[in-house]
Design brief:
Blueprint: E1 5-9, E2 33-37, H1 39-42, H2 47-57, H3 75-78, E3 97-99, H4 101-106, E4 111-116, H5 126-142, E5 149-153, H6 157-169, E6 173-178, H7 184-192, E7 196-200, H8 204-217, E8 220-222, H9 228-234, H10 236-244, E9 252-256, H11 261-275, E10 284-290, H12 295-301, H13 328-337, E11 341-345, H14 347-358, H15 366-381, E12 389-394, H16 402-409, H17 432-444
Parallel strand pairs: 4-12, 5-6, 5-8, 6-7, 9-10, 9-12, 10-11
Antiparallel strand pairs: 1-2, 3-4
Helix pairs in contact: 5-6, 5-9, 6-7, 9-11, 10-11, 11-13, 14-15
Length: 445
């Protein structure tokens, strides 16, 4: 079937632009673009047919097809004009929806699940968007477009995903990051994949300004979330979780927010599900921000006032330490459509919430801790109730933040004076009686 999609201005300016055009903002008003699909053509298949197709492709093991990917299993809803031979996939997505019953019970809630996006290829949800963007760049280069490299500003996860997928496609990648402000694991990933890594004496917002200027002047393709191709991949999180819940919607979805592309991506996924009849209701959305970097929260508390950029303070949730989010307008639009709320978490709150959920067998990153802390506050206020079904979006693997985990349990994280869920090894001599007594004390505690 002739499925198609194009870029259009989020402010409603007339005209569309092909997805393989190098364009990031509306040429008329300067606002961001979004990908709009031909829903009429998509409706030629019934909701039942779409569900059957997506279920058949789900985690398909076939080696020569990309359809087992959580993203490319939804190819027609993502980038329908992208040729299969140009798809660069590492079986991203298809991540687990993990129940956390003890965490939920402690909050007085019933059904809480964590969508484990960090178990994807490079260890974060950024893989979902980068497979789409890099695949489209590969197609553009094959068509003769003069693209020298793909570049991004990053606080860690974006750079890892870009470097991995660009390397797989044989395309040069450039990463601009704030020097000394990301974890060692996040720094080494793009280095290992052969990216040109530029560590700048600034914060993320400064890196973002530089990469946009490079994209304007130096023939590199911009890979940050202001490029809506990224969001097309990330919206498949919404479709996946509906599929995993038997094609129904939870009552709440809680997601950490920094540059704010992810919440608009979720909203786009939910809107497509509704428009094509695969689900019959909207979930409510909560965006969770670190208190040290919370311009969206400030807007929300003032009845969605215009963005006032801030100088983000240092936070343990380094990937969302962003004071001037590019996708602010898209995020506000999505939150208004989904009865959205915004909550913040202090350093102690995010660290404790992360450790609390780990007691259910997770190994959460600090950004997921921000979302879990926000859920804790919503539950205490009674806004999220026992009968509600909740999904928390975990954005990255905790393995990227081992220093955060070690620092928590050694009680040496800045801003976390008394870690509630601290756990330390019991050091003992090599005597059976000492081990026996420690066992009894530990199990009786």
């Amino acid at each position: 079937m002739p499925f198609s999609a194009e870029f259009r201005c989020i402010a409603g300016c007339a005209g569309g632009h092909p997805l393989d055009q190098v364009i990031y903002r509306c040429p008329r008003c300067g606002d961001l673009l979004e990908v709009v699909h031909d829903l009429g053509a998509l409706r030629e298949k019934s909701a039942t047919e779409w569900k059957a197709m997506f279920d058949q492709r789900w985690r398909s093991p076939s080696a020569d097809e990309p359809w087992g990917s959580g993203v490319w299993g939804k190819h027609e809803w993502v980038a329908p004009q992208l040729a299969r031979e140009n798809i660069v996939s590492m079986l991203e997505g298809g991540t687990h929806l993990t129940p956390v019953p003890r965490f939920a019970a402690d909050l007085g809630l019933g059904r809480v699940r964590v969508k484990q996006c960090g178990t994807s290829h490079s260890g974060s949800f950024k893989d979902l968007g980068m497979t789409v963007l890099v695949s489209m760049v590969k197609q553009m280069i094959a068509q003769g477009r003069p693209i020298r490299a793909v570049a991004c500003a990053s606080t860690g996860d974006t750079s890892a995903a870009l470097a991995a997928y660009a390397a797989a496609a044989g395309i040069r990648s450039v990463v601009i990051l704030p020097r000394g402000k990301i974890s060692t694991a996040q720094l080494v990933q793009p280095l290992a994949a052969g990216a040109l890594v530029l560590a700048i004496d600034t914060d993320f917002d400064g890196c973002m300004r530089l990469v946009q200027e490079l994209a304007d002047k130096e023939g590199v393709y911009l890979a940050n979330s202001m490029n809506s191709l990224r969001l097309e991949g990330q919206k498949t999180v919404a479709i996946e979780l509906a599929q995993q819940l038997g094609w129904r919607m939870p009552d709440w979805v809680v997601i950490p927010g920094g540059n704010l592309g992810n919440v608009s991506a979720l909203g786009a996924g939910f809107e497509m599900l509704l428009a094509l009849g695969l689900v019959d209701k909207r979930p409510r959305i909560c965006v969770a921000q670190a208190a040290h970097a919370s311009p969206l929260y400030a807007s929300y508390t003032k009845q969605w006032a215009d963005l006032e950029p801030v100088k983000a303070k240092t936070t343990l949730a380094s990937a969302i330490q962003i004071g001037n989010p590019v996708s602010f307008n898209k995020a506000v639009k999505a939150l208004k459509a989904f009865e959205g709320v915004v909550e913040i978490a202090t350093e102690s709150e995010l660290a404790d919430a992360s450790a609390h959920a780990d007691r259910d067998g997770l190994f959460t990153c600090p950004h997921t801790g921000v979302a879990l802390a926000a859920l804790t506050k919503l539950a205490k206020r009674g806004e999220v109730k026992r009968e509600h079904e909740v999904v928390v979006i975990s954005t990255a693997s905790g393995l990227k933040f081992a220093d955060f985990k070690v620092g928590y349990h050694e009680a040496r994280l800045e801003g976390v004076a008394s870690p509630r869920f601290r756990n330390v090894p019991v050091e003992l001599p090599e005597r059976y009686e000492a081990v026996r007594d420690a066992l009894q004390r530990g199990l009786d505690a």
